[in-house]
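Internal ticket - ligand job 427, (4S)-4,5-diaminopentanoic acid:
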Amino acid sequence: MNHEKSEALFSRAKTVIPGGVNSPVRAFKSVGCNPIFIEKAAGSKIYDADGNAYIDYVGSWGPMILGHCHPKVVEAIQQTAADGASFGAPTARETELAELVCRAYPNIEKIRMVSSGTEATMSAIRLARGYTGRDKILKFDGCYHGHADSLLVKAGSGLATFGVPTSPGVPADFAKYTLTATYNDLEETKQLVAANKDEIACIILEPIAGNMGCVPPCPGFLEGLRTLCSAEGILLIIDEVMTGFRVAFGGAQERFNVRGDLVCLGKIIGGGLPVGAFGGKKEIMDSLSPEGGVYQAGTLSGNPLAMSAGIATLTLLQEEGFYQQLEEKSAYLEKGLLQVAGNRSLDTCWQRVGGMFCTYFQQGPVNCFADAANSDTETFGKFFRSMLDNGINLAPSQFEAGFMSIAHSTEDLDRTIEAADKSFAAL
Ligand code: HOZ
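stdout (structure tokens):
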């Protein structure tokens, strides 16, 4: 495949943008090649600057559950743009999207819109600290909750790829308030809570970890955290930025029937535009300014274009059978991939919840970051490059999840399985 134009665009970008990218994983560093520059996308396909087409399983890292450029989402954005792109003032659309989300998540009684998942988690943490009057927080190794200082401690996603789980630039004085435990290890979490009695404001987690591949919660883990938090006066923050409206309309909380005190959302609720949100019990949310003293604000929060794209997207997700179809497509891909991997007797392990998934290059199962770190990332890189050459766009890291969209056709899935067969053979 010819990538001449992408190569030239990357060289140019590197002169004015650090690493040539606006988010580190996009640089393809851990898969041993240079990034493709994207020109456009439609449905299940994405097209690079050289005119190559790929079946896309990145889906902008999750938001594009309807596929790219769904006509109703495009129309909603265009119509709204004609009335003005931003006012910095309340609009009816914000309330409409808030109502839609509150209906889908019964534990979200009030919600505030922000512009990214990072803003959602950092604001939720501040709120938890303000509400409880406690300073410490607890997160899990390999979970990634955006790039706010207190959350860049033993984080997943790009930090896992580059082997710097805690970023330089995070003062030790901040990091000391962030306790970390092993994902899926309830006993260790309980011990940490006991050792820091009455000091922990919140436990934050991805209910299905999607920034160290795809790691489902072990039976009892989420339930155990819920019980622990209630008993200890700790707020449970469920970060559904990736899983919200993805693994069910009501997210992982609906799927596993465990509810957080606060919930973070993003990605799908913006239909591809920059949106984040955090919400929860009225009593907690009313601690936010202007009702309460915990400050949080944003010029582009509740942006009209983003609200319209979100409303159009969530409306379409409520169509009869949507999640069933997404499940069927994902299960079809799973069956095919397991078969071709099995034919080659490779050490691979496939993990999936609904329309999010990952293939680890190791035997598995993968239950925590230490497990994920055992993967053969070099082989993953070879597999990634071969898939790309065969027209399949996967996330360029062993530690990211793949995403199915409703626009993926059976032909797309068969082509993906065929490409995987060839790519496994070439390893
Ligand atoms: N860390 C993000 C996904 N888990 C990457 C986002 C991006 O590069 O757009």
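Auto-summary: The chain has two domains: 4-69+321-426, 71-317. The pocket of (4S)-4,5-diaminopentanoic acid is lined by residues 23, 25-26, 61, 157-158, 211, 400 (CB under 6 Å).
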